[in-house]
Amino acid sequence: MATPTRPVLLTGASGALGRMLTRRLAAAGWTLRLSDIAAFPDPVPQGATFDAADLADQTAVDRIAEGCGLILHFGGVSTEHPFKTVLGPNICGLYNVYEAARKNKARVVFASSNHAIGFHERTEKLDADCQLRPDGYYGLSKAFGELVGRLYWDKHGVETVVVRIGSSFPEVKDERMLSTWLSFNDLASLMIACADAPAIGYAVIWGASDNQRSFWGADSRARIGWAPKDSADTAAENVRGKVTENCVIERYQGGSYAAMDYSREEPSPRSLFE
C-alpha cells in the first residue's frame, strides 16, 4: 500500500462511514483533510485537520480541496429527504466538488448508493452498466452524481471511481443485507485500492462484500485490483425471517426507500394487455 503523496480530502467526515475511514486511513499514515457541515465528534487524529464547510458553498469547497490529489466524497444528505433538502448538498455540492477536482487535477471516489438503482427488482442480477433506476430523491442525487463523474472524465479527464454502496454497517441486520452488506474492512480496503491504482479513468464498482446472495454482478473492480474479503453469508441463520410485510419493500432492491411515498397503482396482469 502506497501512502498518497498529496493530501486527501474526505467530505462527510463526521458521518458514521467518514469517522470509520478517518480512523483507518489516518492509522495508515495518510495526510487527511477532513470536512463536514457538522462538527467532527471525535479527536482529530495525528496527520489530519478538520475544516467545517457547506458543500453548497463553492468558495468553501475550493478552499478545503486546494492541493488535494484525491477526494473521497462521502458528504451530503445521506438518507431520503424532500428534493429541496437534497438539492443543495447533493446536487449543487456535487458540482462544486467536481469543479474543485478539475482545478486541482484530483481523482474522485464518489460514494454513490444502491438507491441509484433501487427500483430494479430483487429477482434481477445487475451488472454495473445497468440502467439507473433511483428509488427516491436521495437515489436520484446519486444517479446525478454518477453522470457528473462520467461527464468530468469525458470532458476534463477527472478520474472517478463510483462506489455504489449497499449497506455498510458493523453487522448484518436483516435478510436484505445478506445481498447488500459491505463490511467496514472491505470499504476501507476499497478506498486504499482506489488511491493505489495507477490509472482508473471512469469506473463503477458495487460496494458490497463477497455475498453469495448478492443482487449484483460484473463491475470494474479488477481495474483497481480490489476484491472483498468478508461476507454476509455467515450471518444467514442469525437474520433468517427478518423481513417486512410490505410487498414494495420486499420486491425492490432499494427496500424501504422504494416504499417511501409510493403511490403508484399497480395494474392487474390482464389490464396490461387490454
In words, what does this structure look like?
34% of the residues lie in helices and 14% in strands. The chain is α/β, with parallel strands linked by helices. The chain has a single domain (8-273), classed as NAD(P)-binding Rossmann-like Domain (Rossmann fold, 3-Layer(aba) Sandwich), CATH 3.40.50.720. The chain has a 7-stranded parallel beta sheet with strand order 3-2-1-4-5-6-7, sandwiched between helices. Strand 4 (70-73), helix 3 and strand 5 (107-113) form a beta-alpha-beta unit. The radius of gyration is 19 Å and the shape is globular. The mean pLDDT is 96.
List keywords for this structure.
274 residues; Rossmann fold; alpha/beta; 9 helices; seven-stranded parallel sheet; single chain
